[in-house]
Design a protein that fits this description.
heterotrimer; A alpha+beta; B alpha+beta; C alpha+beta; A: alpha+beta; five-stranded mixed beta sheet; four-stranded antiparallel beta sheet; C: alpha+beta; Ribosomal Protein S5, domain 2; 7 helices; 12 strands; elongated
């Protein structure tokens, strides 16, 4: 007896075969050697979130970021002559690692470090609790930086009575160092830039962001990959900076400089120049990517 | 150092002889506080700032006693502006509504400027049309400052404004300043042309606009009454452009020109010179010095404070309290010398 | 509520010209004068109060508590309240972060002065209340358009409060590595020690190394960028139309982080926000290097004068 509860297919039925998955490599930018430009290889792909107006996925080392842009969509209420622009950041994973940022900012003596490790577990709990209700410190900083940097670039006055929302989702992050925040900001900003282009929102210019550090011996390192070096250099005279640029007007739209010690104009100039170099490189990469995906 | 001068109303003067007859009522200059007994005499009508318990009249605010015939009221020293019909004030648009603008005038409630109470652009006085309703934001929008007059008061004490005169309207070419409204001394005229190519509007509500004196053809509209203005103007005209037909009177055709869209333009004059800009700031700081010392503000005091401020070369030094007090002292001494 | 178009245009023209004229006539590197007093809260370890002539005011109280060592970052807690605004507003937590981080990074002797024993530390609670001059003009509870950036003023207040902070004198053994014991203190207020010792004695000054001597809390300076001009301590009008804002830290004779860009415009309109040139940043740092020492000297004078309310003149 055949199973009457099932509708059997016709005799000539064939098993379902899925089409081969398209090769992602087509949208990857050409791989670059770090020795060339000093910038790590990164992978970008736009338009991967379907229910938003624009999105971008970025992967560099083990850090993965998805930025989605919603808008411009109408908002109720009083008349405003330009759109409102807001940024929300969510760190999905590795809260523990990122919470390090605040505490490891400071240089400790060795014994303190050990004590700190003991205390870390407590801290994890508190961060988690905070993370549930409101933005954590890192998320907050990131959101503010992105918002400040992109405000000048978006033609908000073209969208009266509407809102543009940017959601940054950090899926994984592996930087164990004190500069994870700066490096995260850099890549989030670059990812946001592409997501905004993808959304079709009118922009004055694409914002490109660079990161650089000035080491003890006054050399500028572009896009320093901290995961290799660890925290060896902490305690010395080290200046780290992130700067966002709009190249059309050659203006700095976002800036964040961190240093344990005092700095002077000369050092800042050097480190900002480094950021600028990287931002230009990133910009030309992004241009190339956009042209290739058109 | 504290200097408190209380601006008196003109109509107080006539009452001085009456005061002596009714001795139980406190003297004009006396300051009363809330809950203070003013009089037990029942002949007085109780006005603003007072309340009654039985036959006794008490003050409900801290201020000076004001008597008009048999009406007794207390004028508060501090507090928000209370609009009165005919007041020349400055307001800021905060909302564009249905055939009206909501205007902040520093009073307890926002004032209303009806579409029918403004000069409609594009021609002589005409009836308002549906297009006007749709283009209201082109005339006045949120944030705009305007020079206007209280037309009437509503039941709840909020004001209805009007700008139906060429001397009223949108403000530009200058800078805004707000002082406590009790410091503005009411007078016949509240807009003045000052030396240094600067004009000023002292709103009764404590809002002040200091701006570049408009050039020849506009000058008449802002201050046709001020004699100093016309003098100045004729001087300037003689030098710059010679005689202009019709510049001495407001003709109907001119009215037409003036009330075109130009009056609602946001564009400032080009090339406002640095000299004028710094003069404007000097006036601003001079007024702030007067306000710092709680001295009533009028045209002559502004001029005196301005001249006193000339002793201090740097504009920045005028923000120091010591300097501000010195300027105020100079003004008060100057008044004593003149005997005013 | 906002400024009118022509007002903003006038201000922008005045500030962007070659010889800029600020709306209150100040020079571009001139701060607003402040009136300050310290130690006016009897229940706090240290307190300060600063007022501007426009009526805005900042009140700071510092309290201490003995805690078991966890992380150094936990040793300072900062709470910022502005008028009666909700404390979960983004910019309030931003400002709190900036202030707290600048304190953590530049705290005296790397927290050595808070160390009691190997196990116990003092924890400092810094409570900041900022009363803005605009609270009167505000139409709704969420209207923040007339709120000026208080970072600089608050950092001055924290500087004064920390310099006036006194901590109880430890009388138990400071080494409890082997035997754990609770720290005990001298309960006489007159024998308390200053968190930031004042170097009144000239001898001490000479004996000590300069680095120890000049240790003082960090200061933050807010700069407004308009075209090629920079303005220190911008007023609300200047903030509204600035191309970009910049916050620069200064501590113990040096420019320190944070050096960050800042959105000064509170009213939400973005028409004037443009960003700045790289050169502006360098110029800003130079300006701070020139001005900051005078400011900290002025603040030190206030600390020396003690309780009296002192007016600090504007800096030229």
């Amino acid at each position: 007896m055949s199973d009457r509860r099932r509708i059997t297919g016709p005799e000539s039925a064939l098993p379902l075969v899925f089409a081969p998955t398209p090769n992602n490599q087509s949208t990857t930018k050409s791989p670059q050697e770090k020795t060339n430009s000093g910038i790590r290889n990164f992978f970008i792909k736009t338009g991967i979130v379907s229910n938003c107006n624009g999105s971008c996925f970025l992967e560099v080392d083990n850090t993965t970021i998805i930025v989605s842009v919603y808008g411009a969509k109408p908002i109720r209420g009083s008349s405003v002559t330009s759109a409102s622009f807001s940024v929300m950041t969510k760190v999905s994973n590795n809260l523990e690692e990122l919470s390090n940022f605040t505490s490891s900012d400071l240089s400790h003596s060795k014994e303190e470090k050990e004590e700190q490790k003991l205390a870390k577990e407590d801290e994890y709990v508190t961060t988690n609790q905070i993370g549930k209700t409101q933005l954590s410190l890192v998320e907050q900083k990131l959101s503010t930086y992105i918002q400040t940097a992109f405000l000048p670039s978006i033609l908000l006055e073209k969208y009266p009575k509407s809102s543009i929302e940017v959601f940054i989702n950090i899926l994984t992050n592996d930087s164990h160092t004190n500069s994870s925040l700066l490096s995260l900001i850099t890549w989030c900003a670059n990812c946001t830039s592409l997501a905004l282009v993808d959304s079709g929102i009118e922009l004055k210019d694409m914002v490109s962001t660079g990161i650089a550090k000035l080491t003890d011996d006054q050399t500028v390192v572009i896009d320093p990959s901290y995961s290799n070096e660890g925290r060896k250099t902490v305690g010395g005279q080290e200046v780290r900076a992130v700067a966002s640029y709009m190249s059309v007007t050659d203006t700095v739209v976002g800036l964040m400089i961190e240093s344990e010690e005092g700095v002077n104009g000369e050092m800042i100039e050097k480190v900002i120049d480094g950021c600028n170099t990287m931002a230009r490189e990133i910009r030309s990469n992004m241009n190339g990517f956009l042209v290739s995906t058109m | 150092m504290e200097i408190i001068t209380i601006s008196k109303f003109n109509n107080n003067k006539g009452l001085n002889d009456e005061d002596e007859e009714m001795e139980d009522v406190s003297n004009n200059d006396q300051i009363v506080t809330p809950g203070e007994l003013i009089t037990e005499d029942t002949v007085w009508m109780r006005g603003h700032g007072t309340f009654a318990l039985g036959n006794k009249t008490y003050s409900s605010v801290a201020g000076t006693i004001l008597k008009v015939n048999k009406l007794l009221s207390v004028k508060p020293l501090k507090g928000r502006y209370t609009p009165e019909t005919g007041d020349h004030i400055i307001g800021r648009v905060i909302e564009v509504g249905n055939r009206r603008w909501k205007v902040d005038i520093g009073a307890r409630s926002d004032a209303v400027l009806l579409l029918g109470s403004v000069n409609l652009p594009g021609g002589i006085l005409r009836r308002k049309s549906d297009t006007d309703e749709l283009t209201m934001r082109n005339m006045l929008k949120e944030g705009d400052l305007l020079n206007c007059e209280v037309q009437s008061l509503f039941q709840d004490g909020s004001a209805s404004l009007h700008t139906r005169s060429l001397k009223y309207g949108k403000l530009k070419n200058g800078i805004f300043l707000s002082v406590p409204r009790s410091l503005i001394i009411r007078s016949k005229n509240h807009s003045f042309v000052l030396q240094g190519n600067v004009s000023i509007i002292l709103g009764v509500n404590g809002y002040i606009w200091i701006y570049k004196t408009p050039t020849v053809d506009n000058r008449l509209k802002t201050d046709s009454t001020a004699s100093t203005a016309s003098k100045l103007q004729s001087g300037v005209m003689g030098r710059q452009s010679g005689y202009q037909v019709g510049s001495g009177s407001v003709s109907l055709t001119r009215l037409e020109e003036e009330s075109s869209w130009e009056i609602y333009s946001d564009k400032n004059d080009e090339n406002i010179s640095d000299a004028i800009r710094s003069n404007i700031i000097r006036y601003r700081n001079a007024i702030q010095a007067l306000a710092h010392s709680q001295i009533g503000i009028n045209e002559s005091r502004i001029n005196m404070a301005y001249e006193a401020s000339m002793a201090y070369g740097s504009l920045g030094s005028l923000t120091e309290p010591e300097v501000m007090e010195n300027i105020s002292n100079d003004v008060l001494n100057g008044e004593k010398m003149r005997g005013s | 509520m906002s400024f009118s178009v022509s007002e903003k245009d006038y201000l922008y023209q005045s500030l962007s010209s070659k010889t800029p004229i600020r709306p209150d006539g100040r020079k571009s590197h001139q701060l607003r004068g402040i009136e300050a007093s310290i130690n006016f809260l009897p229940n706090s370890n240290g307190s300060s109060r600063i007022r501007l002539s426009d009526g805005s005011e900042v009140i700071i109280s510092i309290k201490s508590k003995v805690v078991k060592m966890s992380t150094l970052a936990d040793l300072i807690e900062l709470d910022l309240t502005i008028d009666n605004l909700r404390d979960d507003l983004t910019f309030i937590s931003d400002w709190t972060n900036i202030l707290r981080n600048s304190l953590l990074r530049n705290f005296a002797d790397k927290f050595e002065c808070l160390k009691l024993t190997t196990r116990y530390y003092f924890k400092l609670y810094v409570d900041v209340l900022f009363l803005s001059s605009s609270s009167n003009a505000r139409t709704t509870k969420t209207d923040t358009s007339f709120l000026q950036n208080p970072l600089s003023m608050i950092s001055f207040g924290i500087y004064l409060a920390l310099k006036s902070t006194r901590l109880p004198l430890l009388i138990s053994n400071s080494n409890d590595k082997d035997i754990e014991e609770l720290p005990t203190f001298n309960d006489d207020w007159s024998s308390t020690v200053l968190l930031y010792p004042q170097d009144e004695d000239e001898e001490i000054k000479e004996n000590n190394t300069t680095s120890q001597n000049s240790s003082s809390p960090p200061l933050l300076f807010v700069l407004s960028v308009v075209k090629n001009n920079l303005f220190i301590d911008p007023s609300i009008e200047e903030q509204e139309i600035s191309d970009c804002g910049l916050v620069i830290g200064w501590c113990s004779g040096k420019v320190v982080s944070p050096i960050e860009s800042l959105n000064l415009n509170q009213s939400g309109s973005s028409e004037y926000i443009k960003g700045m040139h790289g050169q502006n940043i360098i110029e800003g740092i130079k300006m701070i290097e020139n001005v900051a020492a005078t400011v900290s000297k002025g603040l030190d004078e206030i600390v020396k004068d003690g309780n009296n309310s002192v007016f600090m003149d504007s800096i030229f």
